[in-house]
Design goal:
alpha+beta; 35% helix; 17 helices; globular; 505 residues; six-stranded mixed β-sheet; seven-stranded mixed β-sheet; binds flavin-adenine dinucleotide
Length: 505
């Protein structure tokens, strides 16, 4: 197997440091040299505080336990997302999209069957959080850590302070051999479409045989220098700005993200051990920055302005090619889908891992690059479609924004087929197989979304008095019994040992 000899990463945000740690861990035996250049004057985006369960796999891959990093990053466990106020006209004030776990194998079919039954007009329970263990853990604020006497896998993600996580990964990466230079890149030297070197303010010219663009929305290497075009998703994802506002920590310490529908977007509430992270993701076509900040402050109870707000612009879409010649783009430089399902770091990880797989199989071969680009493009589009569905299906009528989102017909063929199959009362898993969709969001996630929104026909006139699997199979008792095995989230974090870099392999 060959690896690039010298990888130069430009950018020291979460994407740059995740990539650096993955490279040195997997390719350490091949003595690959990794240099990370990071501007001391251009900050990181500094938001991005929720993850999917893929981040757990990231830490496993780089040999880091929860106790090694979580206390250093004010991190908490995340068992899913609660959506408040996205579909009020259907009668659903709220629903959860939980991460799935092994005990759910006993209840998933009951949920899917009930959803089908409800699509046929019969009145059965289709509230997703009633059928999945993490729904129970979220309600009861319990940590998703499996005790020894309950030998089932429970999937979870995390919430964390993005700046602290960046610092932790930087320390870890440098301790494992990443050369870190704090300097700004001013020039990119290209011969026949291949990057030879970059020029920096303080460290002169730096040569490499492979370059990774992690410069965030700037896209300095791949977009500005190599000229790879960017494809915007603006026609079906309207949100292009955000305002972030911290708030005081809460002793109860929930273990889920809450996403609340607002007048022109939505607001996240993310529990950390040190504070709450709040933010309003909105469309600047429908609300201006000052009004968005006021709406957010009103929601979180900070109209007096105790906390400072940060305003951000978002560029939503993806590159035409994520890997171009000897340059790979990772993180915001490669693209961004708004953070409703916290998928950005998932895409970072998938991109770096699949890049390493592709390189190990075929090195620099054009076919490998082409296949990689097709796969990553598809991953972005499938995440996009799942997010678009949240807007298309909304049943709010309180502002132009929500009406425009519902009326928007710029949908991919793949998404149209998913909706058609649902409305025709057919099987979504068969459709997912037919389309060969490889996505983070499987048939369970689609059912949570569609049922959570109450996307069902009117109830039939005659209702049999039984046939609700939730009741007949005793799902509630089963999951409540399972949940008894889990400790409180707050107590678990308080008892977490404080380990650090010194304890790691
Ligand atoms: P950045 O953090 O912007 O880092 C860019 C780096 O490039 C910096 O170190 C900078 O110094 C460096 N740089 C730039 N130009 C130069 C230069 N000329 N020379 C040298 N260095 C340079 N993701 C999630 O997974 N979950 C979430 O919940 C989530 N929420 C988000 C909410 C919002 C509002 C936004 C905007 C994003 C969110 N994200 C989320 C995305 C997440 O923040 C990013 O994917 C993640 O932080 C990685 O960013 P990055 O490293 O690509 O870019």
């Amino acid at each position: 197997m060959t690896t690039p000899r010298h990888i130069v990463i430009v950018g020291g945000g979460t994407a740059g440091w995740m990539a650096a740690n993955l490279f040195v861990r997997r390719w350490q035996a091949d003595a690959v040299k990794v240099t990370l250049l990071e501007s001391p004057t251009i900050g990181t985006i500094g938001v991005g505080e929720g993850s999917t369960p893929t981040l757990k796999r990231f830490f496993e891959l780089i040999g880091v336990d929860d106790a090694d990093w979580m206390p250093h990053c004010a991190a908490t466990y995340k068992v899913g997302i609660r959506f408040d106020g996205w579909s009020p006209a259907s009668g659903r004030a709220s629903y959860r999209h939980p991460f799935f776990s092994q005990p759910d194998s006993f209840t998933t079919n009951d949920f899917l069957t009930n959803c089908r039954t409800r699509r046929l007009g019969l009145d059965v329970n289709t509230q997703p959080d009633d059928f999945f263990l993490n729904g129970q853990l979220a309600r009861q604020h319990r940590a998703p850590l499996t005790p020894e006497n309950f030998p089932f896998d429970v999937d979870y993600g995390y919430h964390f302070d993005a700046l602290l996580l960046g610092r932790f990964l930087a320390e870890l990466g440098t301790s494992r051999g990443v050369r870190h230079i704090a300097t700004r890149v001013t020039d990119v030297h290209i011969t026949d479409g291949t990057i030879d070197a970059v020029t920096t303010v303080d460290a002169g010219r730096i040569d490499g045989d492979f370059f990774v663009d992690c410069t965030g929305f700037a896209g300095l290497l791949i977009q500005k220098s190599l000229g790879v075009p960017f494809k915007s998703f603006k026609n079906n994802l309207f949100n292009d700005a955000a305002v972030a506002l911290p708030g005081p920590a809460n002793d109860e310490l929930p273990c889920e993200t809450v996403s609340v529908a607002m007048s022109a977007g939505w607001c996240w509430h993310i529990p950390l051990t040190s504070r709450f992270g709040n933010g309003y993701v909105y469309s600047s076509d429908f609300i201006d920055a000052d009004a968005a900040e006021t709406e957010l402050r009103r929601l979180v109870g900070d109209l007096d302005g105790c906390f400072d707000a940060r305003h951000l612009k978002m560029r939503v879409g993806q590159l035409d090619r994520h890997w171009d010649n000897n340059c790979l783009a990772v993180g915001l430089a490669q693209g961004f889908i708004e953070p409703l399902e916290a998928t950005a770091l998932l895409l970072v990880q998938v991109s770096v891992e699949l890049f390493m797989d592709a390189w190990e199989q075929a090195g620099f071969a054009a076919d490998g690059r082409k296949a990689f680009n097709a796969t990553i493009t598809d991953r972005f589009e499938r995440v996009r479609d799942y997010i678009v569905a949240h807007y298309k299906l909304n049943t709010r009528s309180d502002s132009e924004y929500w009406v425009a989102a519902r009326d928007n017909n710029a949908l991919s063929d793949s998404l149209r087929h998913m909706f058609d199959v649902w409305y025709r009362r057919e099987d979504l898993s068969v459709e997912i197989q037919r389309q060969q969709l490889k996505s983070h969001f499987d048939t369970r996630s689609w059912h949570c979304l569609l049922a959570g929104y109450g996307t069902f026909p009117a109830l039939a006139e005659n209702q049999p008095n039984r046939g609700d699997l939730f009741v007949d199979k005793g799902v509630e008792n089963f999951l409540a019994g399972c949940a008894l095995n889990f400790e409180s989230h707050a107590a678990t974090l308080r008892a977490q040992p404080q380990r650090g870099l010194a304890s790691m392999a």
